Amino acid sequence: MTGIADYDAIVLGAGAAGLMCAATAGQRGRRVLLLDQADQVGKKILISGGGRCNFTNIHTGPERYLSANPHFAKSALARYTPADFIALVDRHGIAWHEKTLGQLFCDGSARQIVAMLLAETAKGKVDIRCGQSLSEVEHSDATFRGTFGNFRFTAPNLVIATGGPSIPRMGATGFAYDLARRFGLKVVEPRPALVPLTLGGADVLFRELSGVATPVEARAGKAAFREAALFTHRGLSGPAILQASSYWRHGEPVTIDFLPDAAPGWLVEAKRARPRATLAAALGGALPDRLAQVLTERLALPGELGAQSDRKLADAEVRLKRWTFHPNGTEGFAKAEVTAGGISTAGLSSQTMMAKSLPGLYAIGEAVDVTGWLGGYNFQWAWASGYAAGQTL
Ligand code: FDA
């Protein structure tokens, strides 16, 4: 193909953020080209939420996001809210339900969300092209120029919406960061987030518990999450751990309260009520048996409760409340639901997502250093940041 096609905006990456951005700008009358190297759009949406897409969370607020600048997400999140996305879903007749903790899922399939976004881009007459690679993008005279396969294009606006490197087997790369750096933006070091943690050393005993899950409160840094933890053959997972992993840094501990609902002094009281019971039996009422056994071994309190001093039991209670694990790593980008870090918000306008140093360049979605909690928050950021840029292009 020869010739160069002119557009008002090029959106690179047809994931959640790119689709929303392109649809929004297209419906404002902008001529938008949406490009994706994958053979189909919205692949992560299709596998999300176990195939049902946890598309938003009704408790969305800036405090549920990590970023070097915790204020950055406020403006976009306030201007495109979960209620706005729910209204869109409702207009398309997609049935949904709240599963738990404000997490909204499709009753049917994540495919409905992709079909909805494609319908919205069609309404905006967005030109979508997939399955080629972008060989070059350059900027001069207030114009971006590039080649996709052998299709050449120009536009005064370019949106980086190519996500982060989590799940590389789906084609995820650090492309966004390379491009951003090339145009003078800084990148906060990317790291796997919402990711299982691995255990070694003295904690290795717990790997025997692979498959055991229990409700806990998990803490990393200043964050605490009350949800289920799951032991795996490599270490720790489950929602409480995935959440904590986003706040965890190498060398730091993760503490777990195995009995977040237990009243202070419960173990001494258990001794008074059932002096012949073992600690494993006392714990077994509240925890899975295999976990109760391992904890009892680690606490080195064999035999009957009646044979233990109140002091020892009080100490054991404290340890069960603040059990300290020392993860030796994470399962990495291969297993991370999202990437923390990314294109630094310091170089972007929080109103429009446009680069302060290069008018016409935008960055949205997971590519940016804004990372949500587990439970629909990451898609809400993709919708909100995509909408903010799409309103401005
Ligand atoms: P996203 O990764 O969706 O899209 C980027 C696009 O850019 C892709 O289509 C990719 O092919 C394309 N691309 C990459 N490099 C390119 C290049 N060089 N040229 C052209 N195109 C390129 N979140 C949530 O809120 N609720 C949930 O239920 C889940 N569930 C979930 C499950 C699993 C298994 C994963 C891995 C992740 C989730 N997430 C989630 C997170 C969520 O999927 C993620 O935050 C968003 O998809 C981010 O949207 P983006 O559009 O920013 O990137």
Automatic annotation (TrEMBL):
Q: Which PANTHER family match?
A: OS12G0638800 PROTEIN
UniProt keyword Flavoprotein, yes or no: yes
The RsdA/BaiN/AoA(So)-like insert domain is annotated at 191-338
On the tree of life, the source organism's domain of life is Bacteria
Domain RsdA/BaiN/AoA(So)-like Rossmann fold-like spans what residues? 8-391
Q: What is this protein called?
A: Uncharacterized protein
- Species annotation: Sphingopyxis panaciterrulae
Pfam families registered for this protein in UniProt: HI0933_like (PF03486), HI0933_like_1st (PF22780)
Q: Which InterPro entries match?
A: BaiN-like (IPR004792), BaiN-like_dom_sf (IPR023166), FAD/NAD-bd_sf (IPR036188), RsdA/BaiN/AoA(So)-like_dom (IPR055178), RsdA/BaiN/AoA(So)_Rossmann (IPR057661)
> Which cofactors are required for activity?
FAD
Q: Which UniProt keywords apply?
A: FAD, Flavoprotein
Lineage summary:
Bacteria, Pseudomonadati, Pseudomonadota, Alphaproteobacteria, Sphingomonadales
The residues that cross the membrane are none
